Amino acid sequence: MDVAALGDEVESVSAFYAERHDIARTDDWFMLKLGEEVGELTQAYLARSGRARDKGRDAAEREDDFRAELSDVFAQVLLIAKRLEIDLESEVARKWLVWKPQ
Q: Which pLDDT does position 1 carry in this prediction?
C-alpha cells in the first residue's frame, strides 16, 4: 500500500470515530491530537526503556505499547497531510531524498 492509500484508509477510520464520538475535526484538533499522540509515544518510550513506571506491564507489553503509539503518531501525521492536501511522498523526496548518497 502506498502512503496516499494508507492515508485514505486512516482518514476513513478517523472520520468514523469522530462521528461516533461527536468530535469536531478542526485544523486545531488535528494538530493538538498529534501533540497528544507524541506525548503518549514519549510515555511508552520511557516505560519501554525502564525510565518510567511500567504500570504492571511486562517487557513484551511495553514493546507493544511503544509500537502502537508510534503507529498512532504516524497515522495522525497522515491525517494532517490529507487534511491540508500535502503529498507526503513528494515532500519526503524533496526534503530528504535529495540527500540520498549516490
A: 73
